[in-house]
Specification:
Elements (H helix, E strand, L loop, with lengths): L1 H18 L4 E5 L3 H7 L10 H17 L4 E5 L2 H11 L6 H13 L4 E2 L5 H27 L10 H20 L2 E10 L4 E10 L9 H17 L4 E7 L5 E9 L2 E4 L4 H5 L15 E3 L15
């Protein structure tokens, strides 16, 4: 009997150690509309979104105490219904919901849970999902451009290389500090927006986080390949100096420094077009020269 008890304890200890190496993924219903859509399923037993969020938060805390890696993804009821229709799964099943959640995580739009309150976690998950969808759409656009009729180059690849060079030159020229860069590009079916945040210490290479950098470059590359309108805004924060804002407009695949009307470009509400009061302690400046030639990306 003693040998059996020792064997059971050893087995349980091994399972606990192994559990620390097994990741978990939790699907999150972001808002009341999505929550209501899931209530039509008999096996989805929650009846209040706020209570659901609190219970979900307790589950996340419990998983964290097991030292297991836990990821959180946005659960979209409409996409879930399509997933079940395509795969022949029963949507009114916890197993189907679990498989769909795992499939989302495999696509990369997942946020690591590190103990954040649900109020902090929720917008982070939404932002990650939106960014991933933007990147996937922009990537598909680049893949569809094909070859340039004049020079035979792959337009999407050339535009991506050009956008990568632009970002590198922009961060190098901006110098040390904390940089927040936003790129806005109109595309066929939606307006693409990408942002990155990066620290550039004195004497260190200027290059952002790999995922944010790839997203930014891909969106900028779409604007370059389309030769569409668009723009880039850079905000730099450094110790003991006012924040600096610089801007460029995208014109036929080139970034042109904003010179005239800089104030109005920065101090206009993007949704309403109404003027906004300038921020105090911020230096609104024209864009600086990036030192690139004026030729397009594939000519």
């Amino acid at each position: 009997m003693a040998h059996t008890d020792h064997s059971n304890r050893t087995t349980e200890a091994m399972r606990r150690r192994l559990r620390r190496e097994v990741p978990s993924t939790v699907g999150l219903l972001a808002d009341q509309q999505d929550f209501t859509a899931m209530r039509k399923y008999r096996t989805f037993t929650f009846d209040d979104h706020e209570s659901y969020l609190r219970q979900l938060e307790e589950i996340l805390k419990s998983l964290a105490t097991e030292a297991a890696h836990t990821g959180v993804v946005l659960f979209d009821p409409a996409e879930f219904a399509e997933f079940c229709a395509d795969t022949g799964l029963d949507p009114d099943s916890p197993a189907s919901r679990g498989l769909f959640t795992a499939t989302i995580a495999a696509g990369g739009a997942v946020v690591a849970y590190t103990g954040q309150p649900i109020e902090t976690l929720l917008p982070l998950v939404i932002d990650t999902t939106v960014r991933r969808a933007t990147w996937e759409y922009a990537t598909s656009l680049l893949a569809d451009f094909g070859e340039c009729a004049d020079c035979g180059q792959d337009i999407g690849r050339a535009a991506f290389e050009r956008a990568s060079l632009i970002l590198l030159r922009l961060l190098e020229a901006a110098g040390p500090g904390t940089h927040h860069v936003v790129c806005s590009v109109p595309a066929a079916h939606e307006h693409l927006l990408a942002a990155l945040h990066t620290e550039c210490p004195e004497g260190a290479p200027a290059w952002p986080d790999s995922s944010e950098g790839a997203e930014f470059v891909t969106v900028l590359a779409v604007g370059i390949a389309l030769e569409s309108a668009g723009g880039v805004v850079l905000r730099t924060t450094a110790p003991d100096t006012p924040d600096r804002l610089h801007g460029w407009r995208l014109d036929h695949g080139r970034l042109i420094p904003l010179t005239g009307g800089v104030f109005s470009a920065y101090c206009t509400d993007a949704d309403t077009g109404e003027p906004l009061a300038p921020e105090s302690g911020v230096d609104y400046s024209a864009g600086f020269d990036l030192g690139l030639d004026d030729t397009g990306p594939h000519h």
